[in-house]
Design goal:
329 residues; alpha/beta; 7 strands
């Protein structure tokens, strides 16, 4: 590790192979916690290169417990986190809306590290029991159109770095890896990122795959469509800039997206929205993110039609039914 840290301190970068080897050695316990913390901290103070992100991603995916669901076209809606905005669980709610609309979702999630409450925190509070049992997960997909893949159950590397990430309490390069390392390797991906630099890195990586993708970044810093301001989406068709007015809405306030200070508060907000008791601002944010995920599946569908499909899922109770079925499947 001394040589690796010296390499970083000299402002040098790593090849894809070197990045692969570093993460593999971290995950397999070849460095102590102090060395890993030093690496994560120093690395977080520089810009990541696409070769490095690709190497880290390859190592994480090769080390993970991969799981295949034959016959399902899957989408994951997973943000990097790390935007520091403390919003309610927008992408998780949108995932259930998309499932309620009839699409199959393999939601990759984790507990909050740089945020107060991650998707796993909310799901566990609502009564969901994490599992890595493929038969159970496939039954969830069949009955609820969604399964939940709790990252630590599938990624051995997480066991090594999780306590270090919690102790640091800030975003690290592991935030960047979450959406890239879904163990089900879904064909479709709608992912939010915390800055435009990372959006472009994701684009370079996805362009060399067969994935259908939408990479989302709100220009005021959110890793999802926040409707607080303009946002950009990069997908298989190119790069697109949207203002809130383009969608027929007026900008909302950051306070409209508040996620609460505790897991209990976050879960209460989650329940209110999925049960159809959310505010207009909360609903529109969830439905807009769901609509763009639907467009990732069906690019020729207009935003208005995709939004209507998402709205019907939420207001008819189909999204809530997906949640309840998932918990009890």
């Amino acid at each position: 590790m001394k040589e690796i840290l010296a390499h970083l301190l000299e402002y040098k970068s790593f090849s894809r192979k070197e990045a692969y080897d570093i993460l593999t050695r971290i995950a397999t316990g070849q460095f102590d916690t102090h060395q890993i913390a030093a690496f994560m901290t120093i690395y977080g103070m520089r810009s990541i290169r696409v070769e490095e992100l690709g190497g880290f991603r390859d190592a994480m995916f090769d080390l993970c417990h991969q799981i295949a669901f034959d016959g399902y076209d899957l989408i994951d809606m997973c943000g990097t986190g790390g935007d520091g905005k403390n919003t309610f669980n927008i992408s998780t709610l949108a995932s259930f809306v998309v499932a309620g609309a009839g699409f199959h979702v393999a939601k990759h999630g984790n507990v909050g590290v740089s945020s107060g409450c991650g998707s796993s925190n909310v799901m566990e509070y609502l009564g969901y029991q994490f599992t890595a049992d493929r038969d159970v997960l496939e039954r969830q997909l069949e009955r609820a159109n969604i399964c939940f893949l709790h990252a630590p159950f599938f990624h051995p590397a997480m066991k090594t770095v999780a306590p270090i990430r919690r102790a640091l309490g800030v975003k690290t390069f592991f935030n960047m890896l979450g959406p890239l390392t879904n163990p089900a390797n879904p064909k479709f991906q709608s992912v939010g990122v915390f800055n435009l630099e990372l959006a472009r890195l994701y684009t370079y990586l996805y362009q060399n795959t067969e994935k259908h993708y939408s990479i989302i970044h709100a220009l005021d810093g959110y890793d999802e469509i926040s409707l607080t301001g303009d946002f950009k989406i990069i997908n298989n068709q190119g790069e697109h800039y949207y203002s809130v007015g383009d969608l027929g809405f007026t900008p909302i306030l950051a306070s409209d997206l508040a996620g609460g200070e505790t897991v209990e508060q976050a879960a209460r907000i989650f329940r209110e929205i999925i049960e159809g008791r959310g505010t207009t601002a909360q609903n529109n944010v969830v439905l807009t993110n769901a609509a763009f995920a639907i467009q990732t599946f069906v690019p020729e569908r207009s935003f208005a039609d995709a939004f209507y499909q998402a709205e019907e899922s939420l207001l008819s109770g189909k999204a809530l039914s997906s949640l309840n079925t998932l918990i009890h499947a």
